[in-house]
Amino acid sequence: MRELRSRIRIVTFLLIMLLVIVFTYSIYSINVYGTRWFAYGRNTRVLSDKNVVVPGKIIDRNGVVLAYTDSDGNRKYQNDKLKRSAVVHLLGDSQNQVSNGVEKFQARYLYGFDTSLSERIEQFINGKQRYGDNIQLTVDSELNTYIVNKFNEDKDLRNKGAGIVVMNYKTGEIIALVSMPIFDPVNIPKSAFTDERRPFWNRVTQSTLPPGSTYKIITMASVLQFDTELANSEFNCDGAVVLDNHTIKDANGAVHGPISLKKAFEVSCNNTFAKIALSLGDEKLLETSKALGFNDNFLFRDIVVENSVYPSEGRNELEIA
Known about the structure:
single chain, alpha+beta, Beta-lactamase, four-stranded mixed beta sheet
């Protein structure tokens, strides 16, 4: 009998521990993945609440209303067609073609899911209309519109796909985010569904692209970490490095001549940094890249982005440079 009671206690203890683990993990998941869960297109709770909650406004950093709900319960976007088109990849659209826009990804706030339980009970008892919270973005919609206008003025760029982002490097705030081509979120043209440039795709957050000269920061960090002698050397920029029948040149055909690492970084000398990358080798560059977030999975609460990827093997000299 005592043995049976002892076993019952053990089983009870294990069940309690299991419940504690499940509860703790649930709290953790809501904090880390909660925004993604609310943004999930088939989330039945969000779908049902959309019928009874008036979602909040979406406002830019200067107080410009980008999205709101009218007295008939219809979701409305900016009256200015160009402006609402310029922020379409940030907000979303009337047919939910854009993934992870504010309308989807911030549903927990727009539909008032962060409202306390007591407030919701009070609203239910008193028969009050439920309202979601307003969201103010760090984005300047005027700057977004300006970027679109400048892009369209260039005949070589207007028909191409592109992603443009402006950030405050001190705070991490996104001041502007444009993915080209844009489209009208209210009246989506049929051509958008077959356009090879994929207008519903947010190129800023959903694409992985070669980093270009910004990668010089990592090459610089790597040479300072692994080869101080090389870092203190004087380099010679003759304007071109030829690798695998491909010529790496500097902007506007510049030839810097004898140049220090500091100066090469200042003028963004492609010639010098290609040579440094080859001297360091792929393994050291990979190690520094990993330390700075490449090949890692980042979870942000306010935005979904593709992970930065560093190819770990099989790179030739041209790719390394």
